[in-house]
Design a protein that fits this description.
Blueprint: E1 9-13, H1 16-29, E2 35-39, H2 46-58, E3 73-78, E4 81-87, E5 110-114, E6 128-134, E7 141-147, H3 149-155
Parallel strand pairs: 2-5, 2-6, 4-5
Antiparallel strand pairs: 1-7, 3-4, 6-7
Helix pairs in contact: 1-2
Length: 162
């Protein structure tokens, strides 16, 4: 069997509920050491995706998940391992991420990174890129998942219609 030359997956999400379902599927596939790089403009759904991901991993649909826009990082110590939720919108230079202690998370925690492109060359090659873009209606989103090799088999298991 040959490997699909383009393992990218696209999902048309009708509303925030569909975004939550996709985030749940991704959360169930994530492992300690994974990096999820969230991309998209302001209001594209990155924080909604991150909240749903964290709530799924915690097994708590009411888990309080504040946006780390001003703190830049929130750490969640969950039964399946730590998750670092970073919002790098206010990062002026990639090197500033070291001040957040991110090296503690690499390898042991799951990193969920909003505005991941702000990491520039510090963004690990092994990651799952999640691009969120506006869809056909104000509530709709288009999610594109671009996996590194470690993620390819995992995202292939996500149903086409979440």
């Amino acid at each position: 069997m040959t490997e699909d030359p383009d393992p990218t997956r696209r999902f048309d999400l009708a509303d925030e509920t569909a975004t939550v379902r996709l985030a749940w599927h991704v959360a169930m596939l994530a492992r300690p050491g994974d990096v999820l790089a969230l991309h998209g403009g302001l209001g594209s759904g990155k924080t909604s995706f991150a909240r749903a991901f964290l709530r799924a991993r915690a097994g708590d649909p009411l888990l309080e998940v504040p946006s780390p826009t001003f703190t830049l990082v929130q750490v969640y110590d969950l039964p399946g391992g730590a998750i670092w939720h970073l919002d790098l919108y206010r990062l002026a230079a990639p090197e500033e991420v070291w001040e957040l202690g991110i090296e503690e998370a690499y390898g042991d925690a799951i990193l969920l990174v909003e505005w991941a492109e702000r990491l520039g060359p510090l963004l690990p090659a092994e990651r799952l890129d999640v691009e969120l873009a506006p869809g056909a209606t104000p509530q709709a989103r288009i999610a594109t998942l671009a996996p590194s090799p470690a993620w390819r088999g995992r995202i292939a298991t996500i149903p086409a219609h979440v």
